[in-house]
Amino acid sequence: MKISTTDLFSAYQTNDLYCELFGNVARALRPDTEAVISRLSALDPERLKERARDAERELYNLGITFTVYTQKDVIDRILPFDVLPRVIDAQDWQTINEGVVQRVSAINHFLHDIYHEGHILKDGIIPAELVLGNSNYRPEMEGLTVPYGTYAHISGIDIVRGEDGRFRVLEDNARTPSGVSYVVENRHLMQRAFPDLMEGMGIQPVSNYGQKLHEALVDVAPPHIPEPQVVLLSPGSYNSAYFEHIFLAREMGVPLVEGRDLTVENDRVYMKTISGQRPVDVIYRRLNDDFLDPQVFNPDSLLGCPGLMTAYAKGNVTLANAVGTGVADDKAVYAYMPRIISYYLDQDPILDNVETHICREREGLQYTLDHLEELVIKPVGEAGGYGITVGPKASPEELEACRANLQDNPANYISQPMINLSVCPTLTDEGIAPRHVDLRPFAVTGRDTWVLPGGLTRVALRKGSIIVNSSQGGGSKDTWVLQATQDSQP
C-alpha cells in the first residue's frame, strides 16, 4: 500500500505493515503526528543524505562506537544511525510507560520472593526447577535483603508492535542492559544536525538520564550515609560497551573504576585514589555476576574485587543491579511474566507478552517441532541476536539443524510466532524505505521507578531483516516522545 503524500515520502510504501510514523492507513492521523510528517516531508532528499553522512562522521569522531569481536577485520564500529526519527505520541507513550513500570515492579517482587520465602514456587505458579536450576540463580542471595526491595535498578524492556498496532514485550533485560548512551547521544546529534526540524515540536527531553540514574542509586545506598559515593565498575577498555561506561560515569559525575581500583578492608569497600582510599557505598556494575568476586564466583577472574560479596552481604555496599537478577530476564522465565504480574500485583498485564512456547515442556516442544517453519526459535541463554532461527526465512538445512538442536537440548530453547514488526521510514541507498524496528525503554528504580521518555529504537537496516541487534547489522534512531496536547488527551 502506498502512502498518499508528497516530496520526501512520495515513493514510500509500507507494504501493509504498521508504520510508526503513518500508522494504519485505515485510521486518521493524530494531529501531533501530522505536524511531524509535514515538517519531515519538506526536507530535501539530497540535503538529507549529506546531513546523514555528516552525522555518521561525527559519531566516529566522538568515539561513539561498539566492538564486534566476531568480525576479525572490524573491531570498533559506530552504531549506524538513521536520521529519520521514530515518533511516539503521548497516548502510546502513556501505555508504554505504565506497562514498563508495572513490569519492573513485578520483576522486583519476583526476585525478592525467590531469594526469600519462595511463595510463587510453592504455589506452583512457575516451576521451581526453572528458577532454582537456572544458571543465573545465585544461592548467595538467599535471605539477603536489599534496600526497598529493588533488585533491578536499571531495566531495559524490549517492546515490539505488530500489524494490529498493539505493543508487546519481546524480552526483559534485568542484568546489565546496554544502549542508553545511544539514546542520549542520538538526541544530541539530532539537535546539532537538525535544529530546524526539532524546533517547537514538543519533544520530551532525555538529557536528564544521568541525573535520574544517580538519584536512584543514591536512594539505595546503605542507610545513614549523608553523601553516598557512587562508582561505575567497568571490565575495562576491551569491553564492547566501554564507550557507554565512560558516558554514564560522566553523565552521573562519578568515578569510572575497574576491579583493580577497589579493595575490601574490614568488610568495607574502598576506592584507591592518589590521595588515599575513599569509601564506596554504591557500585553500578557493568560486569556479570561470575566476574564480581573471585572468592565467591569465578576464581580466575581478574575483573572483580576479592571480598566484594562479603561487604555486600553485610549491607556495607549496594550493587546495582543486584546479584542474581539474571533469573528474571531468562527467556523461559519470561514466558511466565503474565502470571508473575497477576500473582504479585493482582493486575492484568498492560503490555502483553509475545506468545511463547517453552520447549522444556512437552507440549511446547511438540508444537515447535510441528510448526518449525512458521516460528522464531531462540536459545534461552543467548543475547545479541545470536543463535536465533527465523523459520519462515530459514533454509531447509538450517531448519534441520535447528530441529536436531531442539531434540538434543529442548530446555535451551523457546519459540515464538514470527511477528511482522512495525516499520519506520528509513534513509537507504534506494531512498526512503520501510525498515523494521523495536524499542527498548530504560527504567531506573530506586525507591520508585522512572522511565526515560523514549528509549533505544533499533532498526534492521538490511532489507527484509527482522534482526535489529547492532551485532547483526542493525542501527538506531532518535526516539521522539511527543508531549501531550489538548487534542491527544485520553
CATH C-level class of the domain at 355-417: Alpha Beta
Major beta sheet summary: 5 strands, mixed
Helix content: 25-40%
Strand order of the biggest β-sheet? 3-23-22-19-18
CATH architecture of the domain at 355-417: 2-Layer Sandwich
State Rg: 23 Å
Q: Which percent range describes the beta-strand content?
A: 15-25%
Give the helix/strand class.
alpha+beta
State the end-to-end CA separation.
29 Å
CATH level-3 fold name of the domain at 355-417: Dna Ligase, domain 1
Q: For the residues shown, what is the average pLDDT?
A: 89
Give the count of helical stretches. Answer: 14
Task: State the shape.
Answer: globular
Task: Give unreliable regions as ranges.
Answer: 1-5
State the total count of DSSP E strands: 23
Walkthrough of the structure:
The chain is 29% helix and 22% strand. With 490 residues, it is α+β, with helices and mostly antiparallel strands. The protein has a domain at 355-417: Dna Ligase, domain 1, CATH 3.30.1490.270. Residues 1-5 have low confidence and may be disordered. It has helices at 31-41, 45-61, 90-114, 119-122, 128-132, 180-193, 195-198, 209-219, 242-252, 308-313, 331-334, 337-345, 362-370, 396-408; strands at 65-67, 76-78, 81-88, 154-161, 167-173, 230-233, 256-257, 262-265, 268-273, 276-279, 282-285, 318-320, 352-353, 357-358, 375-379, 389-390, 413-417, 423-428, 431-440, 442-445, 449-451, 456-460, 474-481. Residues 471-490 are annotated as: Disordered. Residues 85-460 form the Circularly permuted ATP-grasp type domain. This is Circularly permuted type 2 ATP-grasp protein.
